[in-house]
Amino acid sequence: MNGPNVFDHIPEQAYRELEAIVGPEHATANKAARLAYVGRGFDRQVYWFHGDCRMPAAIFMPKTVDEVVRLVKTCNRWKIPFIPQSTYGMAFSSPYARDDVVYIDMKRMDKMIVDDMNMYVILEPGVVYAQLQGEILKRDLCSLVPGGGGQVSVLVNAFLCGMSIYNYRITILSGRRLNGVEWVTPEGDVYRLGSLASGDDNWFWQDGPGPNVTGFLKGLSSWAGSMGIVTRISYKLYPFQTEKLEPTGMGADACVKLPPRVQFYTVSFPDEPTVRKAIREMARARIGACVNRVPAYWRDVARARGDRAYVNTFWDGWNKTTEEEVARSRMLRVLLVGYASLKQLQYEERVLMDIIEENKGTLLRSRQVDETVFFAANSQGMWKATQVFGECNGIMESPRCIEKCDDLYRERMYKYQQEYPDDFLHQKNEYPWYLSVEFGRIYYSELQAWPYGPKIDPTAPEYDAGNAKRYLEWRYNTGLQLSMETGALSFFDGQVQPVGEIAKVTHDYSIWLERFKKEFDPNGLAAPGHPFLVDKFLNESHPDVINEKTRKMQKEVAAARKGWLGNRQA
Ligand SMILES: Cc1cc2nc3c(=O)[nH]c(=O)nc-3n(C[C@H](O)[C@H](O)[C@H](O)COP(=O)(O)OP(=O)(O)OC[C@H]3O[C@@H](n4cnc5c(N)ncnc54)[C@H](O)[C@@H]3O)c2cc1C
Fold first, then answer.
1. Ligand 1 atom at shortest distance from the alpha carbon of 162
2. Domains of the chain listed by start with CATH number
């Protein structure tokens, strides 16, 4: 069944030892199964198109922490590189450009225990957000659901990104939502961090005696499996309201009907400064559950409803929209929740209406259903218009900084699109997507450029080498330059942007990444190359992508060591 060349990449004896740990039914070196693990999701397509994604040599699915420890120790004995993966939404685990890695697939570790009195959940990597939300909404509790959707691992998301539209009242820094962490190091030792340092019945609070080193595993960016395997966490839950979100619709129309205490408001503002002012006033008045500035083309994404005619429906709508229409109608989506009572919602609604009126906004009709905030059932829609999820960078910083960065991105994208109107989805001079989070203290934004899949896929007849090259140049240079100019912090360092390049112009934190990695993973086996794989991809396959302007800026910033170019007065 496995075919003749199965053990080309790892010794058969090693495979047999690893297989014995999980049992033969939970191990495979079958080519068809291995093919399913080649990543092409999210923006991994970039690596796939360039031939950097490979099949793993074999896959092992442990059920217990003890099995994980034994797998990791056996890999160390045989010097076999291993990569944990849990739900594979981001398919992050693939751009390794090597054939000798094995995957430790954590899906079978899927226990979840909810403590609704103390508002936390203990869960393993196989539990996805849809399962968590399904359980806790019944108990009047809520969590966030990331853009990746209800199908991604809660645990992995907490260590990868951990951000969502619903972070207006819940901290967006996922490390702060962790009470305790059980961690198997790259050499197979088990550590218990956070409140677990005080014993097994301490999952309910966040800290223990002495320093809490949870932050070692999760800062703003991610180790992406290169610091071993997390097997269990205690994750904070948050109070919601008591009325039911009623499921309705089928297939692409599946959503939930919102009860009177949970309501959406869609508002059109005449220009960007007024939207920005209104958002600040909402934060000052302490109202809102989500405050989401939606780019105009998203309306057509939403209207297309994810059906089979999606692409045509999207383009029929978006092609008719003019730049002038986009400029006249800057769209804000606000969710209000009466957490304490209907009266709270009514109060917040009155405040919102005042803010809209004072800022010349127009309230539009909103269907009182949700498919995004509580379930994120529509995340695949992100691919369908151009067949690529085109991200340049994701950033979080103060409102002032994000606004500056978004202004510059919009300006540069518009200029680029004058010269190359057909390279990316034309954004018609729209601003990037941004959110007000943590009651307006922080803003979150995604700088998106959507290339057309077939044009950047070397195997497609429509392939356009010039477009493919310009996409890489845009993605890396624009991302790095804007971070240097404005100080906007990327949460995509190592995932989308090259850590080594940006670290040079900050406080050289890549030195510390390397030191810790060497200390905990002397054999270099856990997710080898991460978090420097994007650097490797650029250095080895596309050394000319980072342009002279970026290099010059890096030198200036690094030499001055006085802060960012955009912040010289600091
Ligand atoms: C369209 C789209 C939009 C997205 N938008 C958002 C967003 O708005 N906010 C947000 O927070 N996220 C977002 N994401 C990311 C998404 O939420 C992640 O995919 C998810 O957090 C991780 O789940 P996964 O299935 O990708 O994990 P996997 O692919 O299984 O793993 C991801 C990484 O974590 C490592 N890993 C896996 N399991 C473990 C483990 N047990 N211990 C240690 N390391 C492990 C893997 O090696 C890999 O590097 C988006 C993704 C997509 C596809």
1. 11
2. 6-105 (3.30.43.10), 112-239 (3.30.465.10), 415-433+449-570 (no CATH)
Q: Which atom of ligand 1 is nearest to the CA of 382?
A: 1
Q: In what order do the strands lie in the sheet with 290-294?
A: 362-364, 262-269, 330-337, 290-294, 433-437, 442-448, 391-397, 489-490
6-20 burial, b at 16+ Cβ within 10 Å, e below that, comes to: bbebbeeebbebbbe
pLDDT digits (tens, 9 = 90+) for 113-162: 999 999 999 999 999 999 999 999 999 999 999 988 888 999 999 999 99
* Residue 99: C-alpha distances to residues 87, 105, 185, 528 (Å): 21, 17, 23, 12
Torsion of CA 449, 453, 454, 456, to 10 degrees: 60
Structural contact between residues 409 and 478, judged by C-beta atoms closer than 8 angstroms = yes
From the CA of 158, give the closest atom in ligand 1.
Answer: 21
H and E: helices and strands count for the chain:
21, 22
Instruction: Report helix angle 342-358 to 272-284, nearest 10.
Output: 140
Q: pTM for this one?
A: 0.94
Q: Which whole-number Å values give the CA distances from 176 to 208, 230, 290, 489, in the listed order?
A: 14, 16, 19, 18
The DSSP element (H or E) to which 136 belongs, if any, is helix 129-137
Name the nearest CA neighbour of 33 among 64, 53, 14, 60.
60
Average pLDDT, the chain: 90
C-alpha 243/C-alpha 564 separation (Å) is 48
Q: Of 296, 357, 292, 298, nearest to 329 (Cα)?
A: 296
What distance in Å separates the CA atoms of residue 505 and residue 526, rounded to the nearest whole number?
27
Q: What angle do CA 219, 221, 222 make, to 5 degrees?
A: 95
395 lines ligand 1 (CB under 6 A): no
What the block records as the tokens of 563 is 């802060």
Nearest CA to ligand 1 atom 31: 85
62 lines ligand 1 (CB under 6 A): no
Ligand 1 touching residue 145 (CB < 6 A): no
Strands (E), 491-555: none
CA distances from 503 to 189, 474, 499, 544 (A): 29, 19, 6, 19
Nearest Cα residue to atom 47 of ligand 1? 225
pLDDT in tens, 72-94: 999 999 999 999 999 876 655 56
Closest-CA residue to 352 (of 373, 329, 333, 328): 333
